[in-house]
């Protein structure tokens, strides 16, 4: 090693540096420390008013609690569902009132702290897979109602597996620093110039609904990019489309169209719910109609900038030109897709949109269109609605890329996607995680 590196070096310098680093570490730990909240005896379900429990059941649906806190094939709300993130795999917590593995000993205050501050009853920092950056905007009364609902569920004894995160992210005090940048507390502002319905929608979307958690881009630290709110994001290997004026839909979303989509999982002018949106629709199908209309009204306003009064464009079908450009894709489409999606196919009609109107096919990001081909589409509500088989086991990455390139060229006026086969390969890998 060059002696130049040691110029000005003194043994005391190293000791002072070590002391300074230790002091900084202790200061950081002090900032991150939170006290535990004392356990309480498991409350009797009868101690909660029936009206509060019923309201909490609706609010838990609006917040999609069971979606993340129910393992595949597991008991509702018992946790242990694997949640894949760019930083590793997290496992959701048990929300049943089991005293050993759930929240049976949690007070309402402990529950509110977890939802608003991301702090467990024990004082440990919680990972933002629990979207407390949105739940922090929810009123205490609504959180207490959700707490009442959860504490009246049947206890399930189920321990979540240990998280599998990239080192050193398993060190929870680091989350205190993350919150300094990305946890913005406070109520959702009421806009006096807007209707009661719009303000209700804002409260639900920005709070319990945590729509921005999927539909907003995230930075390298996993925080939402506030300056690009609702500009599109990532959800469980799918691309969550933009919910602002850049939304790729051929026909502008109206409040009525959004209401129908959120309530049933299908919009004849836009497409069908797939991937992570399926469980969302399943939840919204059973909440009060007024809440879904409020959500639709607010989201439609965020997509303002599209002229919803202009004539709706007719679906495109550039079959001949597309076949010349993508002959392999045309052949594959004829064999695997045309039986349902071709002109005159018996599956067309009945509220099913033409591929020329499907938003995923028009998006700048092909991920969701690819995942629909790989994974298929399941009707989110009682088997009603469009159903499409997955082709992950029957088509290669190159074949999926060919057929989707052909479909985009045939049914849209959008430019070709680039590096499609590479994107298919990535989507297939994400499908298999965790």
From TrEMBL:
Domain of life: Bacteria
Subcellular localization, as worded in the UniProt entry: Cell membrane
Gene3D superfamilies associated with the record: Cytochrome c-like domain
Residues the record lists as binding heme c 1: 65, 68-69
A GO molecular-function descriptor: iron ion binding
Residues involved in heme c 3 binding: 337, 340-341
Binding positions (heme c 2): 211, 214-215
Domain Cytochrome c, residue spans: 51-154, 196-303, 324-411
InterPro entries, A to Z: Cyt_c-like_dom, Cyt_c-like_dom_sf, Cytochrome_c-type_DH, Membr-bd_ADH_cyt_c
Alphabetical UniProt keywords: Cell membrane, Heme, Iron, Membrane, Metal-binding, Repeat, Signal
Keyword flag Transferase: no
One annotated Gene Ontology cellular component of this protein: plasma membrane
The keyword ATP-binding appears for this protein: no
Cofactor binding description: Binds 3 heme c groups covalently per subunit.
UniProt cofactor(s): heme c
Main location (coarse class): membrane
Designated name of the protein: Cytochrome C
Organism: Sphingomonas oleivorans
